[in-house]
Amino acid sequence: MTIARTASTFAPPVMEARRWLKGVSFAPERPLLNVSQAAPVDPPPEPLRCAMAEIVMQDASAHLYGPVLGLPELREEIARQWSRDYRGEVTPEHVAITSGCNQAYCAAIAALCGEGSEVILPSPWYFNHRMWNDMTGVRTVALETGPTLLPDPERAAELITPATRAIVLVSPNNPGGVEYPAALLAAFRDLCRSRGLALILDETYRDFDSREGPAHDLFSDPDWAEVLVQLYSFSKAFRLTGHRIGAVTASVERLAQIERFLDTVTICPTSLGQKAALWGMQNLGSWLAGERAEIIARRRSMEENFATLADKGWRLMGCGAYFGWIEHPFAEASDVLAQRLVRDAGVLLLPGTMFTAPGSEAGRRQLRIAFANVDAAGLSELAARLGALPD
Q: Is 204 exposed, middle or buried (0-12, 13-18, 19+ CB in 10 A)?
């Protein structure tokens, strides 16, 4: 019996976790602490909303189909800023706009892989990457990252087979929070080049990297387009989550393949969302710097609070961008513990089992905290509740 493509993978984790709330009530003095999802819940900043309202009323093109690969002016702005930020050479012809960064990943895999292809994903991985691989007949090969959460290029080299088409990295990492060193990314670039693979680098959270200056020098390589496929999202930078605008930066030849996918799936990204992203890039640099500073402050708060839990067996393994990746001290598996946390602590988070292969011991022992929508006071309360959780 043939199995449907969608039946070949697991249920969407965030939606699954929300179902754990059914039938559970929370006292007013101890409301639910929701650290399960990494999407901003606040709307775009008011100046951007005002600009969007004007676009809706005054710009008729905001309501029409646009080019499949995106509005030329947005592609030009991304190319300009990427060339500046990464000290390399990126042209508008290297950039395509997608309906969110998830679609950028799907399009990249469609352009690179066929039935039976293999893609190497560091584990723990971003679950939607694994889900898309499953649904397209691409085999996910797990690259275990161990206690540092940093993938090892030498270990990755051992996993490459004739079916391998790409290695996927996410930095700053979802779910682990770690920022991959520039030298590590360069080593993976060199590995992929030597073996004829693509390096897919998801930089959804690049705007919240705690390091100053370029996070890597991949774009300064004059032949970067032979290897690199970079993904990006405007959902986090300007809170445009509902408008679904992302980007993929790659070779002209790969974008020609990606165009076929995009034309078939969505025809074009939403014009209003693209115009909003462009306005944000051109006008909200200072505002975004403030958002970055706040996220970095929350990272420090995470580190400080979990230091107080060390004697209870909790361990913060990785922290950065929107995420903390933690090891818990209990005998039960993380998926069972996560559901108990809802009932006993009023905390909703995601278990490591949602980011790892079935049977993974790391998945059983670890949990993800997404703190994009929780301030320092909330993180302190989170630590208190975790510390008070009975065995």
A: buried
